[in-house]
Design a protein that fits this description.
With 107 residues, this protein is α+β, with helices and mostly antiparallel strands. The protein is built from 3 helices and 7 strands; from the N terminus they run ββαββαβαββ. It has a 3-stranded antiparallel sheet. Strands 1-2 form a two-stranded antiparallel sheet. A two-stranded antiparallel sheet has the order 6-7. The chain is globular, with a radius of gyration of 17 Å.
Length: 107
């Protein structure tokens, strides 16, 4: 983490984390992303345009950090399932099937 300091103090509470420039082609590509609230993973999802998706999540989820893991399109669902099963994020849910009827079960 880089912290902007002036006279030994952080002006306006500005903290610069991992500043990096990106090419547009690197922003719009297949990925799995993790939403965090502090150190806890609260949601795992997939997207091709993660920045639009994060904006949508701000409406109904509480999080303050994001991690983006780029991957091949044919592996997105696999990695999403692996991460959901490992971390059991609070906003992810699964479907339990009972005969032909399913119901959403929230973790």
């Amino acid at each position: 983490d880089l912290t902007l300091k002036v006279g030994g103090k952080e002006p306006f509470g500005i903290k610069i984390m991992n500043k990096k420039d990106f090419y547009v082609k690197d922003l719009i590509r297949d990925c799995v992303y993790l939403l965090y609230r502090d150190a806890k993973i609260v949601y795992v999802g997939t997207s091709q345009n993660v920045y639009n998706r994060i904006t949508q999540h701000k409406r109904d989820k509480r999080f303050n950090r994001v991690r983006v893991l780029h991957c091949r399109r044919d592996r997105k669902t696999y990695w999403e399932r692996v991460l959901i099963n490992k971390y059991e994020p609070m906003y992810n849910w699964r479907i339990e099937w009972h005969g032909q009827y399913g119901r959403q079960v929230y973790r």
